[in-house]
Amino acid sequence: MDTHKEQFSLIYDQYIDKIYRFVYLKVSSQETAEDITSRVFTKAWEAYQKGQAIENMRAFLYKIAGNMAIDHYRQKDRKATVSTESVPQLIDDRTNIHDRAVLNADMDAIKAALASVKQEYQDVIIWHYLEDMPTEEIAQMTGRPAGTVRVMIHRGLEMLKDQLIEEA
Amino acid sequence: MQEQELITKLKELKNISPRKEWVILSKIQILDSRNHAEIYAQKRGIAAGLQGLLGMVFQRKFAYAYAALAILLVGSVGIMQFDLLGNQGVQVASQAAIIEAKSNVEVFKEKSKELAITAKSDPVAVSLAVDNVKAAAKQLTEIIKKDPGVAKEIALEINNNKTYLDVQGSAELKATSNDLYKTVAEQMIKDLEATSLTESQQEALDIAKELYDKERYTDALESILLLSMAIKSN
């Protein structure tokens, strides 16, 4: 494997789960998430091969992923719904069937609520709580002041709570 | 729900992860393909065409399944050439064996399609159609066992037709067709084992073997075809 491939292979390994999760939470379909994620990395690999200057690979990947998810909805003109037939594996060590059923129901509700929150709030919630990204990093990545990001996280959580109450 | 409880539950979404086999195969496909944009455009175009055509005939879900399969398989046609892997130890079939296999593949395809049509129009005649498909599948299995070199010739075609069986198949038919997938996958794994593979290709082959060991023969076969496509385009 040449150096370029080796380097991109490491980037792929580092980000594939994160980008897949980010896309899946937006499109709520395993097949679509796999398709979009593949295209995100294909595009990134093409840019990488061309020697395009990529200052922040993570920001670059999330940017492409976000745009492709938006394009997906524009093209299909449909809203996000949680597919019950193609949910990716949730790795969980709870073996009790009842516990797992309750967990899955809760998770489905959270996923559905998250998918319906406004995109910019959805993004910061995913980055902050699922990817453990500090507000300063999100601020740097999005080009927004850290204070604005903190407010967005707070508002996003409020919206999520409201959405869950509405669904209940 | 309190804020802290919501945050805890949000964090549990970290457990969402992609399928391990998809992660490996997708990486190979991206890194090992020569012209990604072209391949994707080609796959999407053909898959969309097939989906539209099949959507008119079959249920929507079935059409999606077929289109998804087409995405996996488009571009794999070249794999069926016997110089595919270019390595020693790979089974090579005689011209006569290839012709015989192709003829039997056509019978298998025809009988599978007949079964799908019969199931819709004449439910009484389904058992006869099922028997015909079973006989064709058994015949193909025997041919591969007799001449393993034809496995590659058959792989793509039976994969293309498996959706007919998935929709209409009885348990007995599934067992027969499963035996066919098993035989084809087994032979293609043997061929790939005799081939020089890169580290990531070897990883993909290991996943296919794992699927085979778990008796997920159709999944194993799809993984093998995808891997072969990556090798071919390299």
UniProtKB/TrEMBL annotation, chain A:
Domain RNA polymerase sigma-70 region: 11-78
An annotated GO BP: DNA-templated transcription initiation
Transcription keyword on record: yes
InterPro entries listed in its UniProt record: RNA_pol_sigma-70-like, RNA_pol_sigma-70_dom, RNA_pol_sigma70_r2, RNA_pol_sigma70_r4_t2, RNA_pol_sigma_r2, RNA_pol_sigma_r3/r4-like, WH-like_DNA-bd_sf
UniProt keywords, alphabetically: DNA-binding, Sigma factor, Transcription, Transcription regulation
Gene Ontology molecular functions: DNA binding; sigma factor activity
Stretches assigned to the RNA polymerase sigma factor 70 region 4 type domain: 108-160
Pfam families reported for this sequence: Sigma70_r2 (PF04542), Sigma70_r4_2 (PF08281)
Family note: Belongs to the sigma-70 factor family. ECF subfamily.
NCBIfam families reported in the protein's UniProt record: sigma70-ECF (TIGR02937)
Name of protein: RNA polymerase sigma factor
From TrEMBL, chain B:
Bilayer-spanning residue ranges: 63-82
Keywords: Membrane, Transmembrane, Transmembrane helix
Organism: Candidatus Staskawiczbacteria bacterium RIFCSPHIGHO2_01_FULL_41_41
Protein name: DUF5667 domain-containing protein
